[in-house]
Specification:
This protein is about 35% helix and about 15% strand. The chain contains ten helices and nine strands. It binds phosphoric acid mono(formamide)ester.
Length: about 300
């Protein structure tokens, strides 16, 4: 089924290039409408569930804001405290019930595959807002939207993915989505945090893998947090935390006009002093999440 009314968005690989570009076009219209204060309330009278089983600031609030801008009401939870998950209710039963109260579901869950399971149970559209180390498709759409806004194109860019490429769901989705474009990729990570083989073998663009933070030719330096919460051995986390840090000094060797992106939250991998440099784009990137999530929600609820 083509992406539209009634669709789920679980993996970025669910979308063809023309569907991604259609989301961008819709997001641009919403961006203009929000800035002009003229958003049409296309979801008036509808109810959206925001089921965040795992911590979030940007994705949860921009999704709720997207629904509110479009006139929908939002119900749900942030963390499982106070829900029947604490009494032992399964994800499947929770979704079965919530699905009777709402018209669409935003879900974040710590387990890989949880969003796919939710979509199999729910009759209404399910939007994956991050499942474990697996995927974060709306993040990827806003990442690509940000690159296109910055450079006017994605084709031809050299893009470094830096940091936790093993557990970072944002870089998994992004590396796969970039198959739709002709780019050069650089995977910069500690050997223990390399891009997993199951993603690497699906990447069609040329890739250079390195441990060195060598970003001199890159247009985009996409930095990620080391995902402490995914490590089963915290000693291992202690060994690799803080291995990369973007500072104004590091950016002296960066390509003119290059940008630094990050899905956020950051810990210490981008110095606060980078915020004032012309390279910093991570806050604008997060802002674009509103327009992309409006576009996705409107697409799956209205077609
Ligand atoms: N980028 C992102 O997913 O941020 P949150 O965890 O704050 O939603």
């Amino acid at each position: 089924m083509a992406f539209g009314k009634g669709s789920d968005l679980i993996s970025i690989s669910d979308l063809e290039k023309k569907e991604i570009e259609a989301v961008f076009a819709r997001a641009k219209k919403f961006e203009d409408a929000v800035k002009a204060g003229k958003v049409k309330r296309t979801l008036e009278g509808r109810v959206v569930a925001s089921l965040f089983f795992e911590a979030s600031t940007r994705t949860r609030l921009s999704s709720a804001s997207a629904a509110n801008h479009l006139g929908a009401r939002v119900i749900g939870f942030s963390g499982i405290e106070g829900t029947s998950v604490q009494k032992g209710e399964t994800l499947s039963d929770t979704i079965e019930m919530v699905d009777k109260y709402i018209d669409a579901i935003f879900i974040r869950h710590p387990l890989d595959g949880a969003a796919r399971l939710a979509a199999e149970v729910a009759k209404h559209p399910v939007i994956n807002c991050g499942d474990g180390s697996n995927q974060h498709p709306t993040q990827t759409l806003l990442d690509l939207y940000t690159m296109r806004k910055e450079f006017g194109r994605i084709d031809g860019l050299e893009i470094a993915l830096v940091g936790d490429l093993k557990y970072g769901r944002t870089v998994h989705s992004l590396a796969l989505a970039l198959n739709h474009y002709k780019v050069r990729l650089k995977f910069v990570s500690h050997p223990s945090l390399k891009m997993p083989d199951y993603i690497r073998k699906e990447v069609s663009n040329p890739v250079a893998e390195t441990e060195r933070l060598d970003i001199g030719k890159c247009d985009v330096v996409y930095v990620t947090r080391i995902q402490k919460e995914r490590f089963s051995d915290l000693m291992e986390y202690e060994r690799v935390k803080g291995i990369y840090k973007i500072t104004p000094g590091v950016l002296e060797g960066a390509k003119k006009g290059s940008i630094v992106m990050h899905p956020l939250p950051r810990v210490d991998e981008i110095s606060r002093t980078v915020d004032a440099t012309p390279n910093a784009r991570y806050f604008q990137q997060a802002g674009n999440g509103l327009f992309i999530r409006m576009a996705v929600l409107d697409a799956v609820m209205n077609g």
